[in-house]
Amino acid sequence: MAIIPNLQGKVALVTGGGRGIGKAITYRLAAAGANVVIASRKMENLEATAREFAALPGKIIPLACHVGRKEQLEHLVEQTETRLGPVDILVNNSATNIGQGPALNTDEDMLDKMIEVNIKSAFRLVRLIVPAMIERKCGGSIINIASVAGLRPQPGGLLYSFTKAGLLMLTRSWAQEFGKYRIRVNAIAPGLIQTDFSEFLWQDETRRRQFEQATPLGRIGQAEEVAGLALYLASDEAAFVTGQVMAVDGGFTAV
Ligand SMILES: NC(=O)c1ccc[n+]([C@@H]2O[C@H](COP(=O)([O-])OP(=O)(O)OC[C@H]3O[C@@H](n4cnc5c(N)ncnc54)[C@H](OP(=O)(O)O)[C@@H]3O)[C@@H](O)[C@H]2O)c1
Predict the structure, then answer these.
(1) Do the domain assignments include residue 117?
(2) At a CB cut-off of 8 Å and minimum separation 6, what does 144 contact?
(3) In a domain, 144, yes or no
(4) Are 46 and 64 in contact (CB under 8 A)?
(5) Total-model pTM
(6) How many domains does the chain have?
């Protein structure tokens, strides 16, 4: 077994691969030799990432896709298969976090949008991609980027916590069912990571300090610190690992 994961010949699809955690994961997968489609709404971020990582061994193809739209997901998978071949590694990373605030201030439109983008996208992509994995009998790795907020309620984050908790149970249920096909399904639960997504938390001095004090390692994390685990889970190094939720949170959920 290789000591450094080798993903040469593998095809990966990373949603939200143009910035933050998804970008860091894209770097690690393409550096290990995988050809990667990165997909999200804004082509300019995706194209900039593809340009920045152009010298890596794996090819990176940017494709526009709103993951909350069923037809766009169908088109994405069709384009991925045409350009690179069937998907071996799926990283469900795109997410949104609207409706921060008191629970009773959240309405049904917010609920629907959070479910569409944070849960249904993964549900739909698995339904679009896994049948070909089963047919090819080559196994596969699905990595769902959840959150510590799916393990503990995030204050003022009812819908975010609810959708991330849902993603965790999808992870375990899929793992149970797809294990016989050597398709592994795992989730990563990041703690507070310094990206655009969580700016409202880490730029607020008080909330940032609260996080740091509640975290044994005493600091917030960086996207690259999540990406190493994704590379491990994508590779054969994790051949006996499935159905797991792994926190990358500086110990936040351990205490
Ligand atoms: N940062 C944290 O503290 C933290 C903690 C725990 C979990 N997470 C999780 O980590 C994942 C990545 O977040 P991040 O921190 O890296 O945030 P980020 O830098 O803001 O990235 C979010 C990504 O999601 C994409 N996205 C958002 N809505 C989309 C949609 N409707 N369709 C397609 N793509 C969409 C964005 O691309 P476009 O704008 O181009 O669509 C962007 O690439 C998320 O699942 C998040 O819940 C983050």
Answers:
(1) yes
(2) 92, 122, 167, 168, 170, 171, 185, 186, 187, 188
(3) yes
(4) yes
(5) 0.98
(6) 1
Verify whether ligand 1 is closer than 6 Å to residue 62 (CB atom): no
> What does pLDDT average to in each consecutive run of 10 residues of the chain (255 residues)?
83 98 98 98 98 98 98 98 98 97 97 98 99 98 98 96 98 98 99 96 95 97 98 98 98 97
Asked whether residue 1 is domain-assigned, the answer is no
User: Of the residues 13, 19, 28, which should be mutated to test ligand 1's pocket, given the most ligand atoms within 8 Å of the CB?
Assistant: 19
- In angstroms, the CA 169 to CA 165 distance is 7
Q: Give the structural domain span for 122.
A: 11-242
- Answer whether 80 contacts ligand 1 (Cβ < 6 A): no
| CATH code where residue 73 lies | 3.40.50.720
Tokens of 5: 């994961």
Ligand 1 lined by 198 (C-beta under 6 Å): yes
Annotation says 160 is catalytic:
yes
- Asked if the structure places residue 252 within a domain, the reply is no
